[in-house]
Write a structure and sequence with these properties.
Glucose Oxidase, domain 1; Peptidase_S66C; 8-stranded mixed beta sheet; carboxypeptidase; Peptidase_S66_N; globular; hydrolase
């Protein structure tokens, strides 16, 4: 039977048994200290002023790393400065969470300089998205949960209140459920597996590196911004050829913001491109999921076991 003939049927997929479950850092409590750093593009103190006020309102104490206000061309300081700053926050037992101030580009330049041995003995939450997909994957590869969620630069963006609240709930260990409306390309079914994913460009870039994560039996989520449609197709071709899509438990497709096209159109939207490859397999798929470079960027815990249910009425995601 062809994959398209399964559409609309309810299917169930479960992750294969693993020898370990990713470790969960302790939930934050009032008066905990959290650090804001930048592993990628430069940022100023003024850029994170609103975030500091919000975090203090959550009852937290905020520490700014040296990479905040540091500058080296477009980066938040040299590779050495950014790596040293992040390492300091990793190793400081008094810092209970590290929030990456913004994305851009630069995290892959320093990831192999970082030592996570101390972190492994005393895990803490690390949160961010976009370029921070590097850290999310690097940590999961080593058996640790982290948060794919809104970053301090965007804490006060208009329309982002729900995303910010989801980050707070994730950091403080409070339950959350996510829902998304039905989409014509959705494929119904129920899937259970650990969440993995993030920015498509970074996931493709990390393939074959020490930060690459197995996707088999897991629920993959994807998002991206400012990419040409042909390049989205090229990245999907690459992921498919490496086998990343073949044994997924499920696929959540988030925002693909501000895509570009050539003078001669590619002929498909970003979602239609993804559907071209997803339809080759028989796992549930949900489009228009609220994750990515738009205000409704809900916090997802990478490595956390979740259940996605896709029906004709829409999509629901719960942690299990």
């Amino acid at each position: 039977m062809l994959p398209g003939q399964h559409r609309g049927l309810l299917r169930k997929f479960a992750a294969p048994k693993r020898c370990f479950m990713p470790t969960t850092p302790p939930a934050l409590r009032p008066h905990d200290r959290v650090a804001i750093v930048s592993t990628a593009r430069r940022v100023s103190g003024a850029d994170v002023a609103a975030a500091i006020e919000i975090l203090v309102g959550w009852g937290l104490e905020v520490v700014l790393g040296e990479s905040i206000t540091a500058a080296h061309h477009q980066f938040a300081g040299s590779d050495e400065v950014r790596a040293r700053d992040f390492q300091r926050q990793l190793d400081d037992p008094g810092i209970r969470a590290i929030l990456c101030a913004r994305g851009g580009y630069g995290t892959t330049r320093i990831i192999d300089q970082l030592d996570f041995a101390g972190f492994a003995r005393q895990p803490k939450w690390i949160a961010g998205f976009s370029d921070i997909t590097t850290l999310n994957c690097h940590l999961l590869r080593r058996g640790h949960e982290s948060i794919h969620g809104v970053m301090p630069l965007l804490f006060d963006q208009a329309g982002g209140e729900e995303a910010l609240e989801s980050l707070r709930r994730a950091l403080f260990g409070e339950p959350v459920t996510y829902q998304a409306p039905a989409h014509p390309l959705n494929r119904s079914g129920t899937a259970t597996g650990e969440l993995i994913g993030g920015n498509l460009s970074l996931l493709q870039n990390l393939t074959g590196t020490a930060s690459d994560c197995p996707a088999a039996g897991r629920i993959l989520f994807l998002e991206d911004i400012d990419e040409y449609l042909y390049n989205i197709d090229r990245m999907l071709v690459h992921l498919d050829r490496t086998g990343k899509l073949r044994d997924l438990a499920g696929l959540l497709v988030g925002h693909f913001t501000d895509p570009h096209d050539n003078a001669v159109p590619f002929g498909q939207t970003a979602y239609e491109i993804i559907d071209t490859y997803a339809r080759r397999y028989d796992f549930p798929v949900a489009y228009n999921f609220p994750v990515g470079h738009e205000p409704r960027n809900m916090a997802l815990i990478c490595g956390r076991s979740a259940r996605m249910v896709v029906t004709a009425d829409g999509t629901r995601l719960d942690y299990v």
